[in-house]
Amino acid sequence: MTTRRLGVVAVALLALGLRASSAGADVSPERDRARTYLMLRVVDALGLSDTKALQMRDILRRADERRVELSQKRDTLEAQLRTALAKTPPDEAALSRLVADAHAVQRELATLPEHTFGEAQKILSVEQQAKLLLFRRDLQGEVRQALRRRAAPPSHPTKTH
Fold first, then answer.
1. What is the pLDDT of residues 95-125, one digit of tens each?
2. Rounded-to-integer distance, Cα 21 and Cα 9, Å
């Protein structure tokens, strides 16, 4: 994709992102930047037309919103599980419901990438689907490396005299 074309897509995505933000979406600036960055990477990796880029943007936005919602639900359920487990003796019926709910949320979180890919398949060519699978794997590797770098203690140059 040419730099000019990527710039046009970026401007369109940013404009749509601003419109979505002002329409009541509660998205932090950091999350919005991350979404835009991901979209630009996807557009470039898959060679998407403007129309497909906008469709893909909607698919990824919905997936991200669902991921945030499910993560919040998971965190709430985990806190409730801890509270329920701290009771002596634990309420078996309440604990059982919490376990079922927490498991359902974890299962939905785990299937979210597959669901998102299924949505993308409806609009992408087979070649673009293949590129998306490869891109997703590459992106996961980049994220893992970034997390490792963040977790590693800062290196200090040693002074020699």
1. 999 999 999 999 999 999 999 999 999 999 9
2. 18
